[in-house]
Design brief:
alpha/beta, seven-stranded parallel beta sheet, globular, binds nicotinamide-adenine-dinucleotide, oxidoreductase activity, SDR_fam
């Protein structure tokens, strides 16, 4: 019950890694508010949790005004904000030459601007209470390049270095900022991978653990980073990837 009496906001909380983290923090005692566009899945999350201490709000994380208003409302209603998990994200499969400018901007709006908007609203609240934990979802795709995921690689790389800058800047205010870098995780975002011939088998072969992660395996690390167990972790970029980034690529 590491989050007993604590209040957490989770963006992209209706599905995949966000929903698994919502369930995990809720299970450890937190009051959770999931922000997402997917109202159906959001309602299902609340229903499955029995309603108590689990709430959903439709928020477009790429909209600064919506994010600011929603975050302030949660803090007002609960009297505090302990955890912000900036997790919502979208993929993008294209080379630079083929990628329309509006798609590049949308990838940055949802994956990067959202983190800025979330932090901009949450930091004054956390600073006033003298404590808080922010966790950002980056990706191993922000640590190295993929073929044909140019915008996604750039956006997740931005999340990583933004996490470092925020982490050092906010440490003495009592706010810890860290990031997780998942490898391949079985969630709807990766359904597209399953449609690409041979790609699923490729990842199963490349990941030293020999499989995709389940969203709960990422949620467990997010819960750790958001908890007081990680009290000396600041600006850390934590791969949760079954050993993928530990491997030089040499065949076995
Ligand atoms: P997912 O598709 O299951 O969840 C993403 C959620 O974000 C969805 O519920 C979606 O509705 C929501 N979302 C998208 N745009 C939004 C917006 N504008 N406003 C509010 N909500 C919005 O996918 P997931 O795998 O759980 O992804 C979560 C995060 O993990 C993303 O940032 C993704 O880039 C990252 N990630 C995923 C993997 C993977 O293999 N699944 C690997 C590395 C990183």
């Amino acid at each position: 019950m590491r989050f007993s009496g604590k209040v957490a906001i989770i963006t992209g909380g209706a599905s995949g890694i966000g929903a698994a983290t919502a369930r995990r923090l809720h299970g450890e005692g937190a009051s959770v508010v999931a922000f997402d566009l997917d109202e159906e899945r959001g309602a299902e999350l609340v229903r499955a949790a029995g309603g108590e201490r689990m709430a959903f709000r439709r928020v477009d994380v790429a909209d600064r005004a919506q994010m600011a208003e929603a975050i302030q409302e949660v803090a007002r209603r609960h009297g505090r904000l302990d955890v912000l998990f900036n997790n919502a994200g979208i993929g993008s499969h294209s080379t630079t030459v083929d990628l329309p400018e509006e798609d590049w901007r949308r990838v940055f709006a949802v994956n990067v601007d959202s983190v800025f908007f979330g932090c901009k609203a949450a930091i004054p609240i956390m600073t006033a209470q003298g404590s808080g934990a922010i966790v950002n979802t980056a990706s191993i795709s922000g640590m190295a390049g993929d073929f044909n995921f140019d915008a996604y690689n750039a956006a997740k790389g931005a999340v990583i270095n933004y996490t470092r800058a925020l982490g050092i800047g906010l440490a003495r205010a009592g706010i810890r900022v860290n990031a997780v870098c998942p490898g391949p995780v079985d969630t709807p975002i990766i359904a597209r991978v399953n449609e690409m011939p041979g790609l699923r088998e490729h990842w199963d072969e490349r990941v030293p653990l020999g499989r995709f992660a389940q969203p709960e395996e990422i949620a467990a690390v997010v819960a750790f980073l958001a908890s007081d167990d990680a009290s000396f972790m600041v600006g850390a970029i934590v791969p949760v990837d079954g050993g993928l980034t530990a491997h030089t690529g040499q065949p076995h």
